[in-house]
Amino acid sequence: MSKQQSNREKRYQAIIDSAEQLFIKNSWETVQMQHIADKAGIGVATLFRYFPKKELVIIAVAEQLLLRELGFFHDIQTKTLSGLKKIEAIFHQYNRLKTPAAIDEAKFIDRFDANISDIEDYETAAAKYFEIRKEIAVIVKNIVQEGQADGSLPQEASVTDEVMTMINNFGLFARKLALMNDILELETTPDAKQQLTIMHDMYMARLRG
User: Fold this and answer.
1) How far apart are CA 56 and CA 120, in angstroms?
2) 51 vs 33: CA distance, rounded Å
3) I need a surface site. Which of 58, 103, 153, 182 has the fewest CB within 10 A?
4) pLDDT of 106-144, one tens digit each?
């Protein structure tokens, strides 16, 4: 890799990292390209050479967050655990109440998924994002097959679809609870953590057969 290419990649990463910090702490409307450029330590004209529109920066941030999740799925797939234990580890990973940072990321992803179709030509612009999601789905299917082979998961053909549904529902529910965390703290019972525990236990009981 040439020094010029290396510097370009470092600058690109600095832009994404700066944008992520801004977007997860502020509304998308208030974050301007100048803010991103200032935080990344570059001129705004340079930023526009990398990303002609703010929407493309938002997509790049979403891809970076999802790539982190993909890294987790790759790691969990290689662990010497039963298929059932790997699925349980995914539930724990999807608990968005763990840290303030996880809650901030949940807010960003929730808004991104809800509004992605408003972005012009989003299927092309966010193609990498959708490819990452597909790759995660393939890993989950492989984990289910491992679990059926090691006997820790039920043998029915429908189990793969069930597990995908469980993970999606658990992830969505955990994100919604993270978004509503301040409101739920005013309620007495069950609190957000208890609700996630109940859902976790229901799903694990089904998978244990």
Assistant:
1) 10
2) 9
3) 182
4) 888 888 988 888 888 889 999 999 999 999 999 999 999
